[in-house]
Write a structure and sequence with these properties.
It holds the Pfam family Rad60-SLD_2. Keywords: Cell membrane, Lipoprotein, Membrane, Methylation, Palmitate, Prenylation. It is found in: Cell membrane. This is Ubiquitin-like protein. It is a lipid-anchor. The protein is 24% helix and 25% strand. By secondary structure, the chain is of the alpha+beta class. It has a single domain, classed as Ubiquitin-like (UB roll) (Roll), CATH 3.10.20. It has a five-stranded mixed beta sheet with strand order 2-1-5-3-4, with helices on one face. It is globular and about 70 Å long. The termini are far apart. About 11% of the residues have low confidence.
């Protein structure tokens, strides 16, 4: 419905840089990622990513799935909504972490001579 007012999103990068964009309530998280990627701000050059597919939005501490629309989040109209924008290919696998820790302890034990 085009009578819906646009939603003002303030996106915050990990580095702390911010930029505001206007979106429609029908825009999904993946639409937003693509739009931001296509209109990457000049002062975000150091954070430039290789593909819009790895851009993830975090709203109130939760990762948004690509098909979630802004309208579905019931954002307050007329207010700026703050989201974090992070580059992540996938969410980390729980088991890769354990392996890395095991290797670390293996290294430290190898040189202990009693």
């Amino acid at each position: 419905d085009s009578s819906n007012p646009p939603i003002n999103l303030r996106l915050i990068l990990v580095s702390g840089k911010t930029k505001e964009f206007l979106f429609s309530p029908n825009d999904s998280a993946s639409d937003i990622a693509k739009h931001v990627y296509d209109n990457w701000p000049m002062d975000w050059e150091e954070e430039q990513v290789s593909s819009p597919n790895i851009l993830r939005l975090i709203y109130q501490g939760r990762f948004l799935h690509g098909n979630v629309t802004l309208g579905a989040l019931k954002l307050p109209f007329g207010k700026t909504t703050v989201m974090h924008l992070v580059a992540r290919e996938t969410l980390p696998e729980p088991n890769s972490q354990g392996q890395r820790n095991r290797e670390k302890t293996g290294e430290s034990n190898c040189c202990v001579i009693l």
